[in-house]
Design a protein that fits this description.
This protein is α/β, with parallel strands linked by helices and 496 residues long. Helices cover 33% and strands 25% of the residues. It has 17 helices and 24 strands.
């Protein structure tokens, strides 16, 4: 076999109190797709930042085509033919799509930017991805799935030799995921060196040739031929134990109505929505992107003003005009875009947990610090939030622990109905299992829970009943025992 084009040799990187990477060594050959697997915080993203020049290793080295390379920053890594597409998009919202694609190497003429050449280059790259995105449109006006495709196009337009994808499908539709996989296979055929990071194990088997598994900053094992192993083998090495049933589903006795939605109408819904969630029930909500799932949850929560209809909590009419009134009525909402809408990244774990409940711990305008700290400590312990300190910035936590902190904030409110929009997006399989346990526990305590998910196995695994949305309306309600992937997908497809 040929020598790896990209090699990591004994890469070690330490942060204060944390050894993020310890003696990491493996290689990736030309014309192959190499997966990196591991729980959040295992070291995968840190390694990609070493590769891209964001971090310098404390020891060890990176080799390209047998030659040791040292990067003083991301610009040097880009010039060396390395492109890293991070899960957290690095785009300038106020700039156009074309400007973002060619930022740093815009075509010029007579000392000025050649806007026609820039537009033509952007169009060619977007057409390669089969994306019909206007090059002149501002990136900030695009939906998150299209922004992800722009990020991918930005890497491809540089014709990099080494391309790393960090959770590239977390915001993509099934159609765009299929297109991305086609692009990756084409890059592999052209001899590119590809690193692929994903928590979705089915994707790993679909598009990757080999895998390196991380745990606690170390390489647990590298498998050069994925066809020799299965998902159970990968999971056991990732988390250090077998997870036989990650969904932790258990049937529960159901009570009276927790949430009643009657003829609710507003933006994103073509037909007024009506449904009921009982106490102790987990209702899944499935549909294609644009079907109206997130829009319906935001209408219930008051994040979007409804045009008509009614919402009842435990049989009482809820006068919801904004999220604050929803919380006071006993309804909490965890949004899909956790980084943008769910947390304040630069603030502490403690502050994020108490953000909306501060009024409860205040008297005459003075915050009771002791009660707030007790609240934080209770939820950190109860939800298993892994943090070295309550004062640690929440952005330093893994995705799973950030999500648990968002849940902790809601649970501080005396909530009776929990609305969860893609609660495990970008979270590793071990953390997913923990989130599912929390959801099941909330239902067992009598709460009504609604979970929006784009992953069919997930929505089938955790739900007592599944509402399928199609083209802005609730198309069907399917009991757990009758749900199959084929049936749910067929119900979700647009009308012929």
């Amino acid at each position: 076999m040929s020598m790896p084009y990209l090699q990591f040799e004994s890469i070690t990187r330490t942060f204060p109190g944390v050894k993020a990477l310890e003696s990491v060594s493996f290689g990736v050959r030309e014309g192959s797709v190499h997966a990196l697997l591991g729980e959040n915080g295992a070291g995968k993203s840190t390694l990609l930042k070493v590769l891209s020049g964001v971090y310098a290793p404390d020891s060890g080295r990176v080799l390209l085509d047998g030659q040791p390379r040292t990067f003083q920053g991301p610009v040097e890594a880009i010039r060396a033919g390395i492109a890293v597409i991070y899960q957290e998009l690095h785009l300038v919202p106020e700039m156009s799509v074309a400007e973002n694609l060619l930022l740093g190497h815009m075509p010029g003429r007579y000392g000025l930017v050649d806007k026609r050449a820039m537009r033509d280059a952007a169009l060619r790259q977007l057409r390669e991805l089969e994306e019909d995105i206007p090059p002149g449109m501002k990136v900030g006006a695009l939906p998150i799935a299209q922004r992800q495709m722009v990020e991918i196009a930005k890497a491809l337009i540089r014709d990099a030799k080494v391309i790393a994808f960090d959770e590239p499908t977390s915001s993509l539709t099934d159609r765009e995921t299929t297109k991305l996989f086609s692009v990756i296979r084409d890059l592999r055929a052209r001899g590119k060196v590809i690193i692929y990071v994903s928590h979705r194990l089915n994707e790993i088997f679909e598009v990757c040739d080999s895998v390196t598994i991380f745990r606690d900053g170390r390489v647990v094992e590298t498998c050069e031929d994925l066809s020799r192993v299965d998902q159970n083998w990968l999971v056991q090495r990732m988390v250090g134990r077998a997870i036989h049933d990650i969904y932790n589903y258990a049937p529960r006795p159901l009570g009276g109505p927790a949430l009643e939605v009657e003829n609710l109408s507003g933006p994103g819904l073509d037909v007024p929505a009506s449904f009921t969630v009982r106490r102790g029930e987990i209702v899944g909500m499935f549909g294609l992107v644009g079907a109206g799932r997130s829009e319906l949850l935001k209408l219930i929560y008051g994040a979007t003003r409804p045009r008509g209809g009614a919402v009842r909590v435990h049989g009482e009419r809820a006068r919801i005009t904004n999220p604050g009134s929803a919380l006071r009525s006993g309804i909490a909402f965890c949004p899909e875009d956790r980084k943008k809408e769910g947390i304040v990244p630069i603030r502490s774990v403690h502050e994020n947990i108490n953000l909306s409940v501060r009024r409860v711990f205040s008297r005459f305008g003075i915050v009771d610090d002791r009660r707030e700290r007790e609240n934080s400590q209770r939820h950190v312990a109860g939800l298993g939030i892994r943090t070295s300190s309550l004062s640690k910035p929440i952005m330093d936590l893994s995705g799973g622990n950030q999500q648990k902190a968002v849940l902790a904030r809601s649970l501080s409110e005396g909530i009776r109905v929990m609305l969860l929009d893609e609660p495990t997006r970008g979270i590793d399989i071990g953390a997913k299992s923990e989130i599912y346990s929390v959801i099941t526990r909330l239902a067992a305590d009598g709460m009504g829970v609604v979970v929006v998910s784009s992953e069919l196995p997930e929505v089938m695994g955790i739900s007592d009943r599944i509402l399928v949305m199609r083209q802005g309306k609730i198309a069907a309600s399917v009991p757990r025992e009758e749900a199959t992937e084929e049936k749910l997908l067929k119900l979700a497809l647009p009308d012929a």
